[in-house]
Amino acid sequence: MSEDLRDKNKQAAEKQKVVSAKNEKKEEVKAEIYNANADDLRKKLSNKNSEYVFKLNKYLMDDGFKEDEAKTAIDELLPEMVDNQIKGIPANQLYGPVTQKAQDIVHPVKKPKTTPFWASWIDTSLLFFALFGVLYGVVALTTKKPDPNSQTGIITLVVLSAMWGALLTWFNNQMKRPKSQRPGWGITIGYLVVGLMFMFVFLAAMTAVPTTINPPLNAIGYFIAAVVAYGVRFAFRKTMGIHDRSFF
């Protein structure tokens, strides 16, 4: 029994060595292909793939490519084409019809630009600044006697907008991720609750800050600040190429 077990283990080890050797050989061949000269790779093409390359070159030239541009575009495909040719996968199966591949090269699909967190944060914060500016302006317009302990000063407006901007940007980014990568609703709600608590603590603390440090504006001042913030946001989004909505 023990001898049979040793024989089986020995056979399994030998098979593993054979498999490892084959994988190493494949990797060596693949490295040679991807480091080879394009002209050498063209010589290795099968008749079927050579015909594909010939037709692809013709379609690219007909679509406005210069001869050297068409050659460069096709040369970039050759390593992948030869690599898959060895596996028995011809170019028409790898890339689809020649006309389709030609269109993919002539009109490549641009990957959507990812907006960095800081840019989304500024964008959303400016939007909140404009919204809060309007709100504070309405409050100032409808209040007959200003409250000396009011926390609706300019510093409050700036910091509160930044807080809401960070919180909503984080939430939006989580919602844009694939479902499998999103945090659970419990964690998400927990973060939102903690963020809101920080805001309430901040607002409570601002009541103790004198108006000399946190000066409130009059209604017209808040409305002007809101318009300026929205204008700055519009220019910022255009400069950064931001097309995402701030809220879902």
UniProtKB/TrEMBL annotation:
Q: What is this protein called?
A: DUF1129 domain-containing protein
Residues crossing the lipid bilayer are 117-141, 153-172, 184-207, 219-236
Q: Which InterPro entries match?
A: DUF1129, MFS_trans_sf
Q: Name the domain of life.
A: Bacteria
Stored Pfam families:
DUF1129
| Region annotation (Disordered) ranges | 1-26
- Organism of provenance: Companilactobacillus halodurans
Sorted alphabetically, the keyword list is: Membrane, Transmembrane, Transmembrane helix
